[in-house]
Structure prediction request, 102 residues.
Amino acid sequence: MAKLFVETLTCVTTSDGVDADEPEIVLEGKGAVWRGKVLKGQTCHVDYICGFTGWIGVLLAEADDPGRDDSPGNKWITEAPGIYTLHFKGDGAAYTLEYSVA
Prediction:
């Protein structure tokens, strides 16, 4: 079983470029593991750890959007050990998610 360490989420640009976004990180089978309010250029410490086998889906969405219509994206994380960065873009917003797998 691999261990996932979700480290930080950085807001490169917000969805409207002015106000704060309210992103949430949702991991497949784990639910929402982090929610916050961020401004452009802000880095937030997530500090979430979980185990998984094979691969795990990660969704970055606006917390106030129940339909997930303005989601910056859905990505997959594999159990290959290393330090990684995921890039999310959508609805005018851009984010980077730093994580590692051991």
In short: The mean pLDDT is 92.
